[in-house]
Design goal:
Helix content is 32%, strand content 16%. By secondary structure, the chain is an alpha/beta fold. It has a seven-stranded mixed beta sheet.
Length: 201
């Protein structure tokens, strides 16, 4: 998993509450078990019309937001079914940070396993960041994970919450497998010892 330290990029405003995982990546895209290629399905039912053409009114189809790296969203982002494809799709599209006042627990946990930062801010700060994100080509935010700060285009600073353990994992690019591999020597020593004591294992 790539390390997350700082991120600077355009922030897309998605001022909708209760965006669920089926909205993020609809069920027809869940057949794959690979993490790549899902960007095309991100928010597809909002991004595209029934005939497959782009919906020009959806924020990620607007010229200023096509290369957005951040989403500023309404409360309770990522609710619904527990599909890990949701952070996969965000990551594949190029979005590695979602800012909201709250996230559904399973989606929140899945983000940390896939290098996506779910940044929790106060309702008042979300309102400021939503305003920043609505500036089109000038909607650039910088997210500093080490300092837990978000810098707006006018120099404003917003603090966000994150648990120390999760922060350390993102800064060092460690998912659960990476954390386990950090103890590779201890695991190897234990297996060697156990193999001698219980050769039938």
């Amino acid at each position: 998993m790539d390390k997350f330290t700082t991120l600077t990029g355009v922030a897309a405003p998605l001022d909708i509450v209760n965006i669920d995982t089926d909205m993020i990546i609809p069920k027809q895209y869940l057949k794959t078990i690979t993490r790549t290629g899902l960007g095309k399905g991100l928010f597809s039912e909002m991004r595209f019309k029934d005939d497959g053409s782009e919906n020009p009114d959806f924020v990620l189809n607007k010229p200023a937001y096509r290369n957005a790296k951040v989403i500023v969203a309404g409360d309770n982002f990522g609710c619904g079914s527990s599909r890990e494809h949701a952070p996969w799709a965000l990551q594949d599209f190029g979005i590695t940070c979602v800012i909201s006042t709250s996230f559904a627990d399973i989606f929140y946990n899945n983000c940390f396993q896939n290098g996506v930062l779910p940044a929790i801010v106060s309702p008042e700060d979300l309102e400021k960041l939503m305003d920043d994100a609505q500036r089109g080509a000038n909607a650039t935010l910088t997210v500093d994970l080490e300092k837990q700060e978000i810098y707006g285009p006018d120099g404003g600073v917003v603090k966000f919450k994150i648990e120390a353990f999760r922060k350390d994992c993102l800064l060092n690019g460690l998912d659960d497998i990476g954390l386990t591999l950090k103890k590779d020597k201890s695991i190897g020593s234990y297996e060697k010892k156990t193999g001698g004591e219980r050769p039938w294992m």
